[in-house]
Amino acid sequence: MSRFDVEAARFDFPTLHQKVKGKDLVYLDSAATAHKPKLVIETMRRFYQMDNANVHRGVHELSERATLSYEGARRDIQRYLNAASHREIVFTRGTTEAINLVSNAWGRANLHEGDEILLTWMEHHSNIVPWQLIAEATGAVIKVAPIHDDGSLDMEAFEALLGPRTRMVAVAHVSNALGTVNPVRRIIELAHAHGALVLVDGAQGVPHMRVDVQALGADFYALSGHKLYGPTGIGVLYGRLALLEAMPPWQGGGDMIRVVTFEKTEYAPPPARFEAGTPNISGAIGLGAAVRYLNTLDFDAVHAHELDVLRYGTALLEQIPGVRIVGTAEGKVGVISFLVEGVHPHDLGTALDMEGVAVRTGHHCAQPVMQRMAVFATTRASLGLYNTREDMDRLADALRKSIEVFR
Ligand code: C6P
Question: At residue 2, does pLDDT exceed 70?
Fold first, then answer.
């Protein structure tokens, strides 16, 4: 008997229970954004109904309550990631902003002409473009580690690209386009041995596995709340405290200062130094609720369930003539990206939607990996903890029906 009751968990997610085009919704787009449990929705509703005040600013009751909830959420996330201190948790708009924060604040202070930033071929645009921008500004150089045909990282080539000028390795924990899980612990060990720092893009990592940032040894770990069953517009940058303390701010404004005069401004210590302006208070509180919700589940059992659904769905799709799965790395999680011979992914996505099945189609904001896999786009079914084998049956049925229509 599984320690994870998926049917019970599905009741926690109200949006799942609706009809789309007259059919029961099958939601297979959690890599784009996951649905939210009632606890998140209710916590945010209660905040706006009862508290709704700015944080760190007022002495009145409502502001104190808002501050307590906001800082409480930071501690919930600290515990969830097993960070050593709540001061290592910086709230951002999401993974994208977290990476831009590091590339700007750390990059401007530390990168010089000829320094190297090592990426991989499977990065999301969010973990490519910010580094290109800072490379242009500083004269640093981008290096890219290749991947194998199955979508796994070529570790030999990766290691060979590490050198005395490597300052930063920025790598996805899990590829959003292929589902590949990168050996981040090993990557971190190797990078550290070469004196480089590592930023892990955890946008697709945290939704599928428990992450312990201390055990990983990550210098920075970026994540998005909305993919972790929390609200949109909120994310986290975990950074080792010594690194954050040594970094200058990247945005100026209220709440990130200690003293301001026209002559000179003294900055607040982290995390406030990196949270200029009124933050996304309800979002942070909602994300705190999301990780508290996840704490009520047995994550190993959830993971086993997700893997079962992934394997079951993969086997079903492989039986359909004309279907080719893109990204078959061993140990992959969360994602089945595929092509159907003779059918454009966008047409397929629309046809699946007519059957109530929600998938994403396109390049998934990862154009280089699409080029590497010699495809221009795929159809992607991505899983959340609430998906079932029945969802995979519905996907396969809808796929067969759609293929009939197009042939
Ligand atoms: N990937 C997808 O459908 P933001 O937009 O900041 O929340 O996350 C950006 C991001 C960064 N890294 C990875 C690995 C990601 O998958 C994403 C977001 C979504 O795959 C939207 S493009």
Answer: no
